Amino acid sequence: MTNVTVPAVRLRVFGGLRMWRSGAEVDLGPPRPRIMLAALVAARGNVVSLAELIDTVWGEEPSPTAVNQVHRLIGRIRRLFEPELPARAAGSWLHPAGDGYRLALDPGRCDLISFLELVRQARAAVRAGATAEAADRFRRALTMAGEPLFSGLDRAVLARPAFRALERERINAAADAADLAIADPGAARYVPSIQRIAASAPLDERLQARVIRLLVADDRRAEALELFDRTSRRLADELGADPGAELRAARGEADGPPRARPAQLPAPIAGFTPRPELTAVLDEQFAETAADGTVVITAISGPAGIGKTALALDWAHRVADKFPDGQVYLDLGGCDPADALRRVLRAIGAGASIAGADLDTLAARYRSALADRRMIILLDDARDSEQIRPLLPGTPGCLIIVTSRSALVSLVAREGARSVPLDRPARTGHQAVH
User: Fold this and answer.
1) Pairing mode, if any, of strands 100-103 and 48-49?
2) Domain contains 344
């Protein structure tokens, strides 16, 4: 008996049916074997009857020799998996079963099977209350399923029940992930993958409504309203229908009150003597850093009573008109980073659903909330660099002013903060105010 080595095979269906054997991509040939292989993959290891294969490949007008052609096509597909397979041998992948055939698949060999298993695990985790595990499984599944299944096949084939059911499962998985994400302070990380799937189902009101709510949760109301208008136009143009209740309710959330514009800077400290030489340094550093397209961080350091807060407030008021989304002031003395993040999020109107959130989740919500804002964040009396790091935005646009008795060397080295060490004014007539 001849021993036949079974090659390693991988199948991909999202974005189009493709196959790799022993690391090399396989040419699947003309449409008919490709369609038959797609039908066998779509069955997810279940039996596909001879009649179903004929209907899928030939439609309503099958060839008189369709049965014989199916058997020849089955042999051809077997050799796609195992080129050295002897004639009439069953092989390790495609097996006769009842009046049809079944293809042996598992998550390690096919992205469709892996996707379905991840979604199953995510839903089980939701039922068990394990939201972090559910979020991880949904994230992995949706990253895999960014493009439609079996794209490139004839539309009549994709309209068959087995294929439509799989595409519906892809859309339902995105909707379920959105339901989980809407209440998550780190919702921003879900948005791109769910948006990609929603873009391929523009008339699915359930999914579009959830994307609108996700955008609102991420404080992207203008995008949410634009998506509602676009979906409404397509419903009218293609279906002659008005938006349903769920879509209208999502629009109502997007059309809520405008986001907060805090103005928390305390008044300039009375008795502060201006220090033009330091203000000039601050202005120059700000201009250089802003031009670099990076987060602008200015660290004013010096001993107690030297006038750090007074200088920071004086300069913040001078440049406030460059930051139209407002100013936040935080006294960090005795305040841990999580408490500071909660205070900022509430100040800018992004404090919903943050009760009990951990530091990483709060920081993610904070970075998302500041992503399209231009604000001043004045962090007064910082203990050290570690206290500051969670309060740094992830994108340019905001000015972070930090005062500290520490030189914040690590913040300067790692985050590119501009250091302004403070000492006593040269003239004794100047009185330092802290």
Assistant:
1) antiparallel
2) yes
